[in-house]
Each structure stands twice: as structure tokens, then as C-alpha cells.
Amino acid sequence: MKKSIKIDDIPKFDAARYLKSEETIAAYLTEVLKENDAALLATALGDIARARGMAQIAKDSGIGRESLYKALRPDSEPRLDTISRVCNALGVRLVAQPIHAPEKPKRKRRKAATLNNAA
Q1: Where are the beta strands (DSSP E) in 38-111?
Q2: How far apart are CA 31 and CA 66, in angstroms?
Q3: What is the Cβ-side half-sphere exposure of residue 26, based on CA atoms within 13 angstroms?
Q4: Rounded distance, CA 42 to CA 20, Å?
Q5: Which residues of the chain have pLDDT under 50?
Q6: Quick one: pLDDT at residue 87?
Q7: Of 41, 37, 22, 35, which is closest to residue 84 (Cα–Cα)?
Q8: Ramachandran class of 5: left when φ > 0, alpha when ψ lies in -120 to 50, beta otherwise
Q9: 87: Cβ contacts below 8 Å, ≥ 6 apart
Q10: Cα–Cα dist 33/91, whole Å
Q11: In this predicted structure, what is the pLDDT of residue 106?
């Protein structure tokens, strides 16, 4: 007999538990930025802030803790100034990259020189 699992019994996923290293945080933000979704970015920054300690991030960013929670909730659309201040407090930088990498110019291949066996 199969045992059924109730949805309410499944623990909610908390990304903050896995954001321990700078590399993991950078990879997480990079993937989130690919989605081009301000609310998702706010949520991700909130996850990172919780991983680092929301009170400390609020202090370092100069944003009140309650305001920071509000700005970084899943349904928010924070201003660029808020995102910038939070990123500075987190020690991360958002970087612009071209969507499509420019093509490298093709080099013409040189024909291999042949040696004549002329004596």
C-alpha cells in the first residue's frame, strides 16, 4: 500500500540555507538575473540577506529592518537605489553582459607551404 504525503507536510524550500559561500551566492544571483524579473531578484536578495543576517544587512545598507523585509518580499518591485544599497551591503555587484556574445572575426587559414624536392 502506498503512503500518501500531504502537501502541508512537505517542508518549504529555503534557499537561504544553501547560500554559504560567495561562489554559491554569485551563481544564484546570476541565474536569477537571467529571468529578468524584479520580484524574483528582490526575493533572491532577501534570501541572501537572510543567509547573512537581515539585521546586519539592514544596518550596513542604511535601510530599516522592517523596510528591508518589505522591499525584499516576493511580490515587491524594489527601486534600483534599494537594490544597489542591498548589493553593496551584501558585498556583491550586479554586472551587465551582452545577451549575445559578439562573434569573433574568422581568420583566413593559410595554406600549408609545400616543399619542392628541387635539387
Answers
A1: none
A2: 27
A3: 7
A4: 19
A5: none
A6: 93
A7: 41
A8: beta
A9: 45, 93, 94
A10: 17
A11: 66
